[in-house]
Amino acid sequence: MCGIFGYIGKKDAENLLIEGLENLEYRGYDSAGIAISNNNKVDIIKHAGKVEELKKVLKEKHLLGNVGIAHTRWATHGLPSELNAHPHTDILKKVTIVHNGIIENYLELKKEYNLKTITQSDTEVIASLLAIMPEKDNLEKIKNATKLFKGTYALAIIFSNEPNIIYLAKKESPLMVGKSGDDIFISSDANAFKKYCKDFYILKNNEFAKIKYNKIEFFNKSKKINKKINKFLNTFSFENKNKYLMQDEIVQTPDALRETATFFNNFKNIKNYFNNVNKIYLVACGTAYHSCLFGKKYLEFLNIPIFTEIASEFKYSKHLIDKNTLCIFVSQSGETADTLSCVKKCKCKTLAITNVPNSSITFACKKTILMKAGWERAVASTKAYSCQLLVFYLLKCLLKNEKAKTNTLIRKSKEYLNKLNLKSLASKVLNYEKIMFIGRQGDYITAKESALKLKEISYINCTACPSGELKHGTLALVDDKTLIFLISTQKNLISKNLLTKEEIEARGGKCLIAGDFDEADIVLPHLSSDLMPIISILPFQSLACEVSIQKGYNPDKPRNLSKSVTVE
Ligand code: AGP
C-alpha cells in the first residue's frame, strides 16, 4: 500500500518521479505528490486523486532539480485529500518526507513531544519529530527517532540543510535502491526502476541509507555496512496490447503458466522439506486464500491433517503447531501484512509461495517456491492465481512422483483465451440485481473466486454458495432478478447440477452453466480434473473485467482497494 519513488542524478527528476509513480500506482491511488530539491530549497506539489491529476498540475508548474522523492497514497490516517497527501513536512519545512506503513503511536508521540501538526497523517508526526531531534547529524536524528516508533515504515527523507541528500529508513515496508551509472533510484518496488537498472539493493529491517550524487552508503543501527547486490530475474516479455492491465494479464496466463512450470524445476529439493511433516496449515488472504483451498485438495493424498486459514483470522486463533508442522504462506506480492504477521508467529517449517523474489514473506519463510507469473499490477489477481494453483499441482506431482502434464494445459488455455469474447454475456449481467456463483467441491472454490473477482472491480453485490447448500437458505434470494452461474466440471456431478438448475429456474431465476461439455452455456475446454480449476476460472476473470469496463469503471484500480495490502 502506497508507493515511494526517489531519484538522484544528473537528469531532471520530475519526469522520472512521475514515471516511477505511474509504475507504482497499483499500490495506491487516492493522492500523489513529489518533492524536488532546487537551489537549497525543497519544492513540493501534491494532489488528491490519481497520478494523472498530479500530472495536470505539473503541466502548469514544473519543478526543477535533480534530487527528488515522490509518493502515491492509499489512505490509512486521514481522508484522501491534498492536505493529507505525501510528501509531508514539519511546520518549518526543515524536513520533507514520504512514508509507507503506519506509525501506531503517532498520537502519543505528538502529545509527548508537543508537536505542531496541521494534517491528519501519522507521517507528519515523523517529519515534525525529526525536525526537533537534538542531534547534529541527520542520520543520527533518524536512527534515534525511529527508536521511538511503534509500527512499520519505509521512509525517504530530505533535510533542508542537506538538500542534495536522500536518507532512507526501513522497518517491515519494502524499500530498494538501484544504481545505473550516475543515476540512483529508490523505490518500494524494484520493478518500478527495472527499466533503468540491472541490479539493486534491498534494505532490511532497521537498516538506513544515505544517498547523494553517485554515492550510496548503508548503515545498520550501529555502523556502516556493505550490502549484497541483487540481480533482476529474467521474466517473459509481454506487450501491453489492451487498454487495461487486467485484460493483458489475463491474456498472459498461458505464458505465466509455462514460465512457472519451467522455473518450478529449480525447487525440486522442496520434496525433502515434506519429510516427517505431521500436519499442514495453508495461510493467505483473498484470492491467494482461494488457491490455498485448492492447495488442500491437491495435497490431501498425503493423509495428514491439512488446515486452510485466512491470515487475518489465523493470527488470533490457537493452533497445534510443533516442529514437524509445515505452514505454507501463499501471496502474490509477498508483502501482505496479514500474511506476513502469521509467518512471524509460526515457529515451525515455513514455505512461501510468492510471485515476487526478495519480498518480505520470502525473507521471513525458511523455504520459498517462486512463481514466474510476471509483474501483476491490476488490483484483481488473475494470472498469479492460475500460477498458484499450478504450483500446488506441481507440488502434488513432485511428492507423488507423478509426471506433470502441463503442456496440454498451456496449449488449451491459450486457444481458449484467444477466442474468448464475453462482451454480450457481460451486458446481460448488467440486467440483473443479484448475481451468484455456485458449484460443488472444487467448482465451489472457483465460484468463490469468481464472486470475489466480480465484486471487487464491478461493485456488484454477488455471492458464492455450494450448490447443495442453496436450498438450505440462499434459495430464498432467488427471483427473476437473479442470475446464477453454476460451475460444473465434474462428470459425476452433472446430473445433480442439472437438478439445481431446475430448482433455480422454478423460482424465476436465470441459471447459466459453465462446464466442459457441449450443452453448457459457457463451454470450457476439457482437461483432467486436476487441471480443470486452472481453466475454469478464466471466463469468470474475463467476465468480471468486461462487466467493470461496461459499467464505466477502470478494472485496474477499483475504489477503496490496493494491490499490495501492507497494513493489518
Ligand atoms: C485479488 O483479486 C485481491 N485483490 C486480493 O484478494 C489479494 O489476492 C489479497 O489481498 C492477497 O494478496 P497477496 O496475494 O499479494 O498476498
Description:
- By secondary structure, the chain is an alpha/beta fold.
- The chain is built from 19 helices and 25 strands.
- Strands 3-2-4-1-10-9-11-15 form an 8-stranded antiparallel beta sheet, with helices on one face.
- Helix 7 (253-263) runs antiparallel to helix 14.
- The chain is globular and about 75 Å long.
- Bound molecules: 2-deoxy-2-amino glucitol-6-phosphate.
- The site of 2-deoxy-2-amino glucitol-6-phosphate has 15 residues, from helix 9.
Key phrases:
alpha/beta, seven-stranded antiparallel sheet, eight-stranded antiparallel sheet, binds 2-deoxy-2-amino glucitol-6-phosphate, Glutamine Phosphoribosylpyrophosphate, subunit 1, domain 1, 568 residues, Rossmann fold, 19 helices
Tally of structural domains: 3
Write down the Rg: 25 Å
If helices are DSSP runs of H or I spanning 4 or more residues, what is the number of helices?
19
Spans with pLDDT under 50 lasting ≥5 residues?
Answer: none
Small-molecule components bound: 2-deoxy-2-amino glucitol-6-phosphate
Distance between the termini: 11 Å
Q: What strand order characterises the main sheet?
A: 3-2-4-1-10-9-11-15
What is the fourth-level CATH superfamily of the largest domain? Aminohydrolase, N-terminal nucleophile (Ntn) domain
Helix content: 25-40%
- Mind summarizing the main beta sheet? 8 strands, antiparallel
CATH topology group of the largest domain: Glutamine Phosphoribosylpyrophosphate, subunit 1, domain 1
Summarize the structure.
The protein has 568 residues and is α/β, with parallel strands linked by helices. It is 34% helix and 24% strand. The protein has three domains: 3-231, Glutamine Phosphoribosylpyrophosphate, subunit 1, domain 1 (4-Layer Sandwich), CATH 3.60.20.10; 233-419, Glucose-6-phosphate isomerase like protein, domain 1 (Rossmann fold); 420-568, Glucose-6-phosphate isomerase like protein, domain 1 (Rossmann fold, 3-Layer(aba) Sandwich), CATH 3.40.50.
